[in-house]
Description:
Blueprint: H1 2-12, E1 19-28, E2 34-42, E3 47-52, E4 62-66, E5 71-74, E6 80-87, E7 92-99, E8 104-111, E9 114-121, H2 141-151
Antiparallel strand pairs: 1-2, 2-5, 3-6, 4-5, 6-7, 8-9
Amino acid sequence: xxxxxxxxxxxxxxxxxxxxxxxxxxxxxxxxxxxxxxxxxxxxxxxxxxxxxxxxxxxxxxxxxxxxxxxxxxxxxxxxxxxxxxxxxxxxxxxxxxxxxxxxxxxxxxxxxxxxxxxxxxxxxxxxxxxxxxxxxxxxxxxxxxxxxxxx
Length: 152
């Protein structure tokens, strides 16, 4: 009888192993998006969930979710503390990682009458660059004296 009960417990999945560990891996993609993958050790029937700075991700932050690989792709502007939680009916384990903008910046400017709004890699940015030095403006001495007299 004990063998039958033990077999039923195993078949019904009543006895589960706890989630023992969680690993995160992140990578920057070519246009500044970030792919974050989550994997776990141990544990039967793990369920994965994601947060950013302690709250659920929004559609404006999340580009895609892949439930087969347990990975998410975040939009260019997203940075902060991303965390993956893995749980089953026995335990829950979380792992977090600080993510950045992958070296991309958002350009929103006008150059030669053309409006530009796009993400660019900061190190290679050639759009809307302001000169680092300006030529000095020379004010004639007589003009300076006239201004000083006017404001006294």
